[in-house]
Amino acid sequence: MIRLFTSTIIILSAFVHAASADELAEQLRVNELMDKVGVEPIWTEQYLDIYIEDRLTVIPDNLKLLREAGSIRSIVVEKMPGLPSRDYSFLKKTKVDRLVIFWHIGSTKEMLSYVRECDTLRELVLGLCEVTPDDAKTLAECRQLASISISPARITKAHFDALGKASPNLKKLRIQSGNNDKLVAFDIAELKALQLTTLTLKGFDVTEDTKKTIRSSLDPCEVKFE
């Protein structure tokens, strides 16, 4: 793993190498964070993660590294306050295909405007990040994404309506309610327009009858309730 610290950049190697005990411990910690939002971490020889730690103040120098590191495929941004929205501009120049963000503070809409410009990005996870219905509209405009995971404090029908306008490229959608929001079949009606293979709904107040109706209406999409 490559770790970028607030004042120091440590470059281990552009190649995958045997992980040290400290690196394995770090991987486990990040794995646990990802598990909270239902994301399967990637630790394979095909993927080399960047871990950006707390209050990255030397971002211009780090962005040069990101732009030149062609082998880096997956980026994890974690800890408050995260990066300022404008600092996600590095996505316009990198070839990353997986971006996981925990606790983004700032304009989600502005951050997503940079996500939209990253043609290679296929998977976006916004873990514990606020996403308004208007942000969901911008998210739907990220036509390149094949997998989206969001977990805002509240989920409304407006969120589902906005995401229902996403690209046919979108195959996996995971939505987690942070407030045990009540879910009825009518809420997800707009998702029928998508060509999803998997829909995961977590943390919702939903009856067994509603689960059956949703699964039937979205068939052949696999619908998971957690």
TrEMBL record:
Residues 1-18 form the signal peptide. SUPFAM superfamilies: RNI-like. InterPro entries: LRR_dom_sf (IPR032675). Keywords: Signal. This is Leucine Rich repeats (2 copies).
